[in-house]
Amino acid sequence: MGYVVGMVREFVIGVAVALACVAVPSLAVAEDDVLVNIRGPLLGRVGEKVTFDVELVNRSGRNLEKLRVIDYFDSGFHHDASKSPIEQKGTVDLAAGTARRVTLEFTLDEPGRQCHRVEILDQAHRFVGGATECVQVSPAVAAPAVVQQPAAAPQTPASTPPPVVTSAPQTVPSVVVPPVATPAPFPAATASVTPTAPPAAAAVALDLSGPVEALSGGVTEYVATIRNTGNAASTPMMLDISWDDGLVPLEASDGYSIAGSRVSWNLPAIEAGGQAKRQINLRSQAPPGTFRDSPPVRACVRAELSGLVGGGVVGDHECLQIRATADRPRLRTPSEAGIRLSLADLDDPVRVGDATTLVCTIFNDGAAASGPLNLAVDLPRGARLVGDARVRVDDGRVLFDAIDVPPGRQQSFEITYKLPDSGRGTASASVSGSTLDGRLDRQCQTDFLP
Fold first, then answer.
1. Sheet of strand 247-252: strand arrangement
2. Domains in the chain, please, with CATH?
3. Which letter does DSSP use for residue 246 in this model?
4. β-pair type (423-433, 2-4)
5. Can you name the residues that pair with 360 across neighbouring β-strands?
6. What is the pLDDT of residues 250-264, one digit of tens each?
7. How confident is the model over 160-207, as pLDDT tens digits?
């Protein structure tokens, strides 16, 4: 496999997207971890150089490292570095929500529909994204023919008549040989050659514009602009705009149809130099349980134009950060709040008929009170409580409610139980609370001997 040396240029860019929206419920759609957008010409001629901008967008929600970028291309493409496939020198790291762009350059060698495909592989050689772009290649324009005028035939000098021959004693009349005429050269042929004009063709571009940040509950406006920069009218096309969870459609330009989280328009042909626009308005919604100081939530809108000559597809996208507006403080994980949990048995092993005591302790290493906590202890199957335990039992689970541990303090709870048969008994404890994001879990095993 050849490596691109000095031919692939890359740089980090901010994720920019464009879309439009209509009132319709959001629908979850399976997506590749990396969105690949390829932008380049749709038409070309043999001998021309073409450039493709390849944008890689990390929409997985996590950091992606050491990604390989590989390009497979038809024989009608020629690359200075190697035959197909070529691989970008080095690997690519993409932080969550960022994008990177690389540029590929080819020379068109053969007429017809020529395609190349960019594929992204992770460290385990697993496919995480890809896209294909094609160019309709026409034969090269023939150079005007040059007609040369034939050189004139060389002139032949007229023959000189021989001298008069006289012999004695007879007199012989002189014989005169007429001069030989030299034929005139043929007139030069003339021809005119008119250069062939390149065929008329449409060149369609798509641009999606919209905000990059919004507050939860706010209305965002996205406009898709389709331009024909070619010298002929385009074919009728279809425009699709889709959006992620966190965006709810409100209204859109006339003539749309909706399916799931996607809105579509059938566009008529666009004259050379003309343009068309479609708009959609979306409401931003932060997920439940997020607050003013919570990290913003990222959501994207994508636009795609299909039905182009040669079967090509043009796309663009726009992403925004949605910030919550709720005034309540952000929920903290138990670790952030300084809450710890331990569970231990006082006697291990014990004989069947004897009891063991579990000790469950909640520690508050934080700087503030824990707030109301709930402690639940699950005993082994068949276990029987011993003594006058003032606890609440629900289907084998021992419950302690509304535990508030002051900062720098701890609280312990004891539970004594027996098992009717020998074996290993496993007890578990968990602590949770309305001010905590998540819970803590611990286990304890005790051997009961015959």
1. 204-209, 219-228, 275-284, 247-252
2. 2-139+202-323 (2.60.40.680), 334-449 (2.60.40.1530)
3. T
4. unpaired
5. 343, 413
6. 999 999 999 889 999
7. 454 544 444 444 444 444 554 444 444 444 444 455 556 778 888 999
Instruction: Tell me the CA end-to-end span of the chain in Å, nearest whole number.
Output: 68
Residue 277 has pLDDT above 50, yes or no: yes
Q: Give the SS3 label for residue 223.
A: strand
- The one-letter amino acid code at 362 reads I
CA 188 to chain centre: 65
Contact partners, residue 388, CB within 8 Å, separation at least 6 = none
The token pair at 86 is 């070529």
Tens-place pLDDT, residues 362-399 = 999 998 888 889 999 998 888 888 876 667 777 778 88
Cβ atoms of residues 95 and 63 within 8 Å: yes
Amino acid of residue 246: G
Return the ∠ at Cα 26 (arms to 21 and 31), rounded to 5°: 100
Predicted pLDDT of residue 140: 82
State the CB neighbour count (10 A cutoff) for residue 130: 16
Amino acid sitting at position 449: L
| 309 closest CA partner among 111, 43, 62 | 43
**Which of 244, 252, 225, 246 lies closest to 300, judged by CA?**
244
Using alpha carbons, select from 301, 314, 147 the residue that is nearest to residue 227: 314
**Predicted pLDDT at 16:** 35
**Both tokens assigned to 176:** 């005169």
What single string gives the DSSP state of each residue in 62-78?
S-EEEEEEEEEE-TTEE
pTM above 0.70, yes or no: no
Report d(CA 27, CA 315) in Å as an integer: 20
3 state DSSP class of 309:
helix
